[in-house]
Backbone:
């Protein structure tokens, strides 16, 4: 007795925009970490800034 249930492949416009915006913002952290660190002053503050921006 097998159930071949599959998920429907669909995504709304809002979900697609959220994914794109998240990828753009998320990749920015890895593109210029030196700039963030130089502006923050200390590694701890740079990490705190990254965490806050991820939550925001």
Residues:
């Amino acid at each position: 007795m097998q159930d071949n249930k599959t998920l429907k492949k669909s995504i709304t416009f809002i979900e697609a925009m959220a994914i794109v915006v998240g990828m753009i913002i998320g990749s920015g952290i890895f593109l210029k970490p030196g700039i963030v660190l130089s502006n923050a002053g200390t590694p701890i503050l740079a990490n705190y800034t990254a965490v806050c921006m991820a939550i925001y």
User: Anything to note?
Assistant: The longest helix spans residues 13-31. DSSP finds three helices and no strands in the chain. The mean pLDDT is 83.
